Every structure is written in C-alpha cells, then in structure tokens.
Amino acid sequence: MDTDTTKTQVADVVDSAREKTQEQASHAVEKGRGALRTQVDTRSTQAGEHSQSIADTLRQTAAQLRQTGDEQKTRYAGIADQGADRLERVGGYLTESDAEELLSRVEEVARRQPWLVGGTGLILGIATARFLRASSTDRYYRQQRVHEAPPTSWESSRSLIEPEAARPSALTPTV
Questions:
Q1: Distances from the Cα of 75 to the Cα of 70, 71, 72, 80, angstroms
Q2: Are 95 and 49 in contact (CB under 8 A)?
Q3: Which 8-state DSSP code applies to residue 124?
Q4: 124 to each of 28, 94, 107, 145, how far by Cα in Å?
C-alpha cells in the first residue's frame, strides 16, 4: 500500500511538472509570436513609407522628363508614372496592413504555390553561398598577409616596381 501512495505522489509531481513545462512553452511561443508580429508590423510600415518615397521621386523624375519635350523621354515618363502608381499602391498596402494580415497572405501564397517558396529559398541559398565563398577567399588572403613576416626593404621596393612580385604565388600566372 505504501508503494501505491508513493507511485501516486510521483505521478502527481510528474503531471504538475508537465503542466508547468507546457504552460511555460506556450508562454514562450506566444512571446515569440508577439515579437515576430511587432517586427513584421514595424518593418512593413517602414518598407511602405520607403516605397511611397520612391514613388514620389519617380513622379518628380517623370515630370522632369516631360519638360524636355522629347517624345522618347515622354514615353519613359509614362512608364515612370506607372511604376510610381504601383509603388504607391504597394506602399499604402504595407503601411496600412497589420502583421496578422501580412503573415496570413504569405502563408496563403506558400500553400498555393509551394514551388515558388522553394525556388526562392534555393535562389537565395545559392546567392548566399556564392557571396560567402567569394568573400572567404578575400578574407583568406588578407589573413595570410597579416600572419606572414613583413617584407624586407628590398621586397617592398620590388613590389612597388614589379606588380607580379606582390601577388601571392598561387595567383601568379605560369608561362
């Protein structure tokens, strides 16, 4: 009978701990969602205001193009006005929409066209990898130069006169 009481007490403690953990996890998730919504709302408002500012600049550019009187530039002004109209609509939408609406629209597009989201992720991943690879090569050579012994006065003057002498040996063309 004593073991049954102990088992019941242990089960109660475990249940209590589980409920407390679930409550804390739920609180943390809600806090994260709130922070995400706040960030999306702030950033979308900023992007909307920036978009409207660009639209105003495009309109000013279109007006200047029309003042020249050139037929070709007048056509370009029409295109600039169309772009300004679209940017202003997008800017207004981003400024006026709240985070919940924007996130639901993104989710809706992702559900309807998952290939678009996957393709965008793939393109961004490839671009990021290429950027990191290119910048890592530069960092590698800069780091090598820092760790190498400083050139003697003869080598320093030689590198000023002969550019090939300043190149790392891996980059020097072989003839």
A1: 9, 6, 5, 9
A2: yes
A3: H
A4: 30, 23, 19, 32
